Amino acid sequence: IRKLYINVVYGFPCSGIGLALCERLLSVDTEGLQLCLACRNMRRAEAARSALLTSHPKAQVALLQMDTSSISSVISAAQEVKKRYDRLDYLYLNAGIMPNPQFDVNAFFKGLFSRNVITMFATGEGILTQQDGVTPDGLQEVFMTNLFGHFLLLRELESMLCRAGRTSQLVWTSSSNAHRSAFSLEDIQHKKGTQPYSSSKYASDLLSLALNTHYNKQGLYSSVICPGFVMTNLTYNILPSFPAFLWTLFTPIFWLIRMFTNTFTLTPYNGAEALFWLFKQKPESLDPYAKYHSLTSGLGNNYTQPRKMDIDLETSESLYEKLLQLEREVRKKLKDEQKESPP
Question: In which pathway does it act (predicted)?
Answer without folding.
Answer: Steroid biosynthesis; zymosterol biosynthesis; zymosterol from lanosterol: step 5/6; Steroid biosynthesis; estrogen biosynthesis
